[in-house]
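User: Can you predict the 3D structure for this chain?
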Amino acid sequence: MVWPGCTGGALDNLESLIVALTHLVDLAESETISDLSAVLLDKLLFGLATNTFKGAWSSARRAGVWPDILNGRLDPTAGICRLLWGMGVFNDQIAGIVALSDSDSYEVPSLIQAAALDLSEPLWSRESHRTRGEAVSTVTYRTGSGMLSSAQAYRSGSRGQSEQIWQAILSPDAVVFTNHPAYATDYAAPGFWCGSAVLPRAAQWHDALIAVYNGADAGMDFTHAYFPLWAFDDYVLGNRWAFARVGQAYLALGSTNELFLMTTGPGAARELRSPGRASIWLCQMGSAEQDGDFAAFQTRVSGGTLLVNGQSVDWTTVRGDRLQFGWEGDFRVNGVVTPLQFEQHIENRYCASGVQQDSMDIQIKDFVMRLNFGLE
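Assistant: Here is the predicted structure, written as structure tokens:
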């Protein structure tokens, strides 16, 4: 329900929007504006609930901020999640927390709290956002073990700014993502971790993702992954695949180019590099419940079929799904063309809503909440 950074200007992050809407609910002289602000705040917080994992922001975003993107405990939404549904942590970014806790008129609906806490079964969510003439489609797959999210083929080949095109998370500390650094610092945009010199072309099917980089002459001569060894309970590094475990949750990260771990400098023990501006990264999520022990997961991933043809791959995931994708052409899942852009504004097990609807229903079990965006 949210593509952070799509608004532009002063309201370029979720916390700023939450603060602004909360103030309007309390202080607007017009009852209509106050009521509509409360509805929009409900909608925004529902998006936060479905795009976080155990209180940590875990979705793709248009405007990432360094160093917030490196750890789910640092984002301004971590404290908001802690306040509203008891997951997350309080940190030094308190504007949203103060606005919500001091509000006399707004209280988060219990249905939204339930959506944030519901990890009983997988959540497959697809969203479409259109703002200021820009369109983006995002997907999220969340289970009790982790979450994987991405922006589908978003402005591929264009120069980036501070976008985080995809992200996987096993815990608030165990955040994994890739990008193509433009500079050796994050005091520029795009930088070393925020954004990409050339945006990749990404596609995701449930718990598996493919991100294709084709940087030509732009940016630094490597792509890399944030892979913080200290945040994992166990890890195994190979030439093509890196594996991580947190509790009973697993993650595999692969590259069609060679992988090597940085052992010195700022990236020591947290940065995996893959040489060359053109490369394809793969991510597979897993769990003990689905895949057996950690060693068995590694064997299944490493032994799977992976055919590389230039800037495209033909990959069979550990779930048995055959994914075909590249810098150009369709995204095929088990031979069927799968769209990368969606018509629905949001589609998951809680809600199905069109882009321009006057209302939106959110349902969990037998309980339904209707958000009415009309002014009447």
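The radius of gyration is 20 Å. The CA atoms of residues 350 and 363 lie 5 Å apart.
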